[in-house]
Amino acid sequence: MILKAKHKALVFDSGVGGLSVVRELRRLMPDIYLSYVADDGFRPYGNKTEAALKARLPGLIQTLVFATQPDIVVIACNTASTTALAEIRAAVKLPVIGVVPAIKPAALSSSRKAIAVLGTPGTVKRKYVGKLIRDFAANCQIVLHGSTGLVDMAERKLAGLPIDLEALRAEIQPLFAGVRIDTVVLACTHFPLLLDELKSVAPYDVSWVDSGSAIAKRAQSILGDVRPGIIPDWPQTALLVGGQDDETRAEMFAAFGFAKTVSL
């Protein structure tokens, strides 16, 4: 059975954080056909060196593109995007969109010109993030904070496990310890999955900004110039590189439109 033509996209992340981008892609383009890949065997990326990520990601993405035949690749991981995007694009001969921390829109919208960038330790230390701050937020006071604990909490939430709100409060406390910020950039795609919990433990109201919607709009713009392909009759699938596809994880991905979960 052959279905109608649709655009196809490959969404890649170290874990489940890219599902926050999947949510925005499906919201903007309900008919899009998605394949999702979680690099479970190599996560977390936040504590990997740039050399290790550059050595791994171009070849891995190239293989995944060959297997899934997408029209576009979305690297739904800030660490991967700020580290190895140029190398990935050189290896893959189709459009590749990376996730850029939303520092520019945060700086534009901040009334106090005081913003925090909340990402993994690897992301907040990248030279690319420093350049974004110099280019778009030079007039702002900046608080940088890296957390791997929030990544684990997001994974637990999607697995249906309880979140320790006191532990979450402790993870973000450094954001509010000095400068009175009014905007927080969620510079890891896992973190929007915890948005309700983050709002509940913040000591005062702030704006929370992420890149999901902008990435979806960029993908829609690029795909507007690409002729849709014919989709065979197979389910949209989440692929776990080095991971384990238990029933709980399969249900997690099914909630985001992936009817099948497969371990590689």
Task: Find the CATH topology of the largest domain.
Answer: Rossmann fold
State the secondary-structure class.
alpha/beta
Low-pLDDT segments: none
Task: Quickly count the helices.
Answer: 11
Q: Describe the biggest sheet?
A: 6 strands, parallel
Indicate how many domains the architecture comprises: 2
Top CATH class of the largest domain:
Alpha Beta
Helical amount among residues, as a percent range? 40-55%
N- to C-terminal distance: 26 Å
Silhouette: globular
Query: H/E series, N to C?
Result: EEHEHEHEHEHHEHHEHEHEEHE
CATH architecture of the largest domain: 3-Layer(aba) Sandwich
Please state the CA-atom Rg, rounded to the nearest Å: 18 Å
Question: What strand order characterises the main sheet?
Answer: 5-4-2-3-11-12
Task: Walk me through the structure.
The protein is of the alpha/beta class. It folds into 2 domains: 2-99 and 213-263, Rossmann fold, CATH 3.40.50.1860; 103-210, Rossmann fold, CATH 3.40.50.1860. Helix content is 42%, strand content 21%. The protein is built from 11 helices and 12 strands. Strands 5-4-2-3-11-12 form a 6-stranded parallel sheet, with helices on both faces. Strand 11 (237-240), helix 11 and strand 12 (260-263) form a beta-alpha-beta unit. Helix 1 (19-28) packs across helix 10 (212-223) and helix 2 packs across helix 3 (78-91). It is globular and about 55 Å long. The mean pLDDT is 92.
